[in-house]
Every structure is written in structure tokens, then in C-alpha cells.
Amino acid sequence: FSAAYQNADEPDPSLRSFQLDSGHRFSVRSLTRLGLANVADALANCGRQLRQLMNGDCAAFAGLATILLVYFCPEEESLPLCSPGEVYKQHHNYIEMLKSHCCSQSAQSSGNRDSTFLSRVLQQKSVIRTVTRDVLAPSLIARLGSRLSPRVIDMCSRLIRS
């Protein structure tokens, strides 16, 4: 699931909150009770840093974020993008993939798009969901189970079963 941080610049931490894409809201106070206060602070700081980093260029940033998401290797907890040259190379590949998939007349006229790089990228979403289901949700329940609300445990359990 994803969350949006609300009132990130609010000086009073008790007025800050996270809203899940399902509409549920968590105040910083409730996250503190769950033992997740450090996570809330880290997310807020990360959000501020991302806004500064993007510097208005949302499209390029979204492209790089997609590349990082797709190429992240959870087994090694690393990215194969060790140098600025590798980041540039992958960014270039991503742009070329978008151009060939979205702009090319042959890509639009041919019925077979499964051979495109975009199709292979989109196939990764099942891997990402599997990693979330098999690794992230169970570890969240195992580490914080006694401090999580029944609703959160139920949500994680449904994700694991799906």
C-alpha cells in the first residue's frame, strides 16, 4: 500500500498524519504508540529531500524512480546502479523504451507489444507484489504484531493470502 504524508510542514507533530490510499489516516501519535515514530520522521524527512531533489522536474524524477524500483534486487538489498554512468545508462534506456513504445507508429500499428521493453518492465509488478506479500508484510507482523491494531494485522494478512 502507499501513503501520503499530510501537513508535513506543520510545526506541531500531533497535527501531522499519514493517509493510506484506502483512505485510512494515521496520526503521528498513533504511529508512535505502534512504535513507528522513527518511520514517520524518516518519511517526512525523505519527502522534504525528494521535493528539493526534484526541483520541479517531476517527469525525469519519476523515470529514475521507476528504474530504481524495477532494478532493485531485494536478495542483495542493492541496486545494480553503482556509478553515475550506470544511472545515466538506465535513464537513457528508459527514455528510449518510452519513445519506442509510445511514439513509434510501428509500435502502435503492430498488435504484438509483448516484445517491447515496457512490457517486460510491467511484468515486474508481480515480482514487486510477491516481495511485498512474502517478505515485507510477514516481517511487519512478526516484528510489530503485538503493537499493531487488529485492522492493520487483518490488512497485512489479507495481502499475504492474496
TrEMBL record:
Question: What keywords would UniProt list here?
Answer: Receptor, Transcription, Transcription regulation
Under InterPro entries, the record lists:
NHR-like_dom_sf
Q: Does the keyword Transcription regulation apply?
A: yes
Q: Which Gene3D superfamilies match?
A: Retinoid X Receptor (1.10.565.10)
Name of the protein this chain belongs to:
NR LBD domain-containing protein
